[in-house]
Amino acid sequence: MLIEEKETEKHSDLNSPKPSSSTNRNASDGFETASDGELGSNGSENDDETQQQEEQQSLSQADDVALKQQKAFEQANDVKMEGNRLFGSGQYEEALSQYELALHLAPDMPSSVELRSICHANSAICCSKLGKYEDAIKECTKALELNPSYMKALLRRAEAHEKLEHFEEAIADMKKILELDPSNDQAKRTIRRLGPLAEEKREKMKEEMIGKLKDMGNSLLGRFGMSVDNFKSVKDPNTGSYSISFQR
C-alpha cells in the first residue's frame, strides 16, 4: 500500500504546489510509519505462534509414534512368552507360530533387537525339534545377524549342522563360541568329537569325486581302446607333486 501511495504522489497534477524541502526530507528519511511498525510486529508474532504450533504438533506426533511402538513391543513380548509356555509343554508347532507372530508384531527399533533375536533363536529350536534342520539354521543365522555374540544361536546352529552332517560348519560355529568363551567345555568336546568325522567326510567326498572323474575319463579313453587304468600317478615324497606314466 505504501508503494502504491508513493506512486500516486509521483504522478499528481503538475500544477499542484511543490512540497517544502522539510517535507521532502521527511518523506525520504526512511522512518517507518506507525502502520508499518504495527504490520511488522503482528507478522512476527504470527510467525512465532505458527512455529510454536508446528513444533508442538511435531512433538505430539513423535509421542504418538513412540507410544504405538511401546505398545507393539509389549504385545510382541507377551506373544513370545506364550510361545515359551507352549514350547515347555511340547507344542512345538504352536510355539513356532507364536514366535513368528511376535516377530511380525515387534517394531523395527533398536530397543526390540534383543527380543527379535531371541524369537529367531527360539524359532530355531522349535524347527530342530520338528526335524526342520535347514530352517533351524536359517533362523539361527537371522538371530546372529541381529546379535553376533549370541552363543545360544551359535550352539543351536552347530547342532543343526551336525544333524545334516555339515561337520565343517558345525566346527566353525563351535570355534566362534570358544572365541567368545574360551573356557566353554562343550565347544571343546564337540570340536574334538567332530574333527575325525569331518576328516572322514572329506576323504569320502574325494573318493566320490575321483570315481566320477574316472568314469568320465573311461568314457573318453574307451574310444581309443584305453582306460584310466593305463595311467599311473606317482607322488614325489620330496616335493609332494605327482607324475603320471602310461602303462599298457
TrEMBL record:
<keyword id="KW-0802">TPR repeat</keyword>
<feature type="repeat" description="TPR">
    <location>
        <begin position="151"/>
        <end position="184"/>
    </location>
</feature>
<dbReference type="InterPro" id="IPR052769">
    <property type="entry name" value="TPR_domain_protein"/>
</dbReference>
<protein>
    <recommendedName>
        <fullName>Tetratricopeptide repeat-like superfamily protein</fullName>
    </recommendedName>
</protein>
<dbReference type="InterPro" id="IPR011990">
    <property type="entry name" value="TPR-like_helical_dom_sf"/>
</dbReference>
<feature type="compositionally biased region" description="Polar residues">
    <location>
        <begin position="14"/>
        <end position="27"/>
    </location>
</feature>
<feature type="region of interest" description="Disordered">
    <location>
        <begin position="1"/>
        <end position="64"/>
    </location>
</feature>
<feature type="compositionally biased region" description="Basic and acidic residues">
    <location>
        <begin position="1"/>
        <end position="13"/>
    </location>
</feature>
<dbReference type="Pfam" id="PF00515">
    <property type="entry name" value="TPR_1"/>
</dbReference>
<feature type="compositionally biased region" description="Low complexity">
    <location>
        <begin position="53"/>
        <end position="64"/>
    </location>
</feature>
<dbReference type="InterPro" id="IPR013105">
    <property type="entry name" value="TPR_2"/>
</dbReference>
<dbReference type="Pfam" id="PF07719">
    <property type="entry name" value="TPR_2"/>
</dbReference>
<keyword id="KW-0677">Repeat</keyword>
<dbReference type="InterPro" id="IPR019734">
    <property type="entry name" value="TPR_rpt"/>
</dbReference>
<feature type="repeat" description="TPR">
    <location>
        <begin position="76"/>
        <end position="109"/>
    </location>
</feature>
